Write the structure tokens for this entry.
Amino acid sequence: QVQLVESGGGLVRPGGSLRLSCAASGFTFRVNAMDWYRQAPGKERELVAAISYGGRADYADSVKGRFTISRDNAKNTVSLGMNSLEPEDTAVYYCHVRAFTRDYWGQGTQVTVSS
């Protein structure tokens, strides 16, 4: 079955950096686009970054220039590098894939940006 397991969240001060990783299994990773979403308390889940199977990356305007999505098809992992973090980036971050005509989500990893 499809599994997505995130890691790398934590508490960081404003201006700091974190790197999230998502280990994927149960589908043909190299032919699927992968995404990172986030959900802050009281807000809807939003798309943060996406990467196509060919490596093309797209970002939400709020994170452009600060976040970098990447993938390693040999290791079936997708990562999200986050720099210049702001309190507004505080949220649970989810790895996502659409495979076999349905959506799959990881369990989420908490990112808290606070002084």
Summary: The first strand starts at residue 3 and ends at 7.
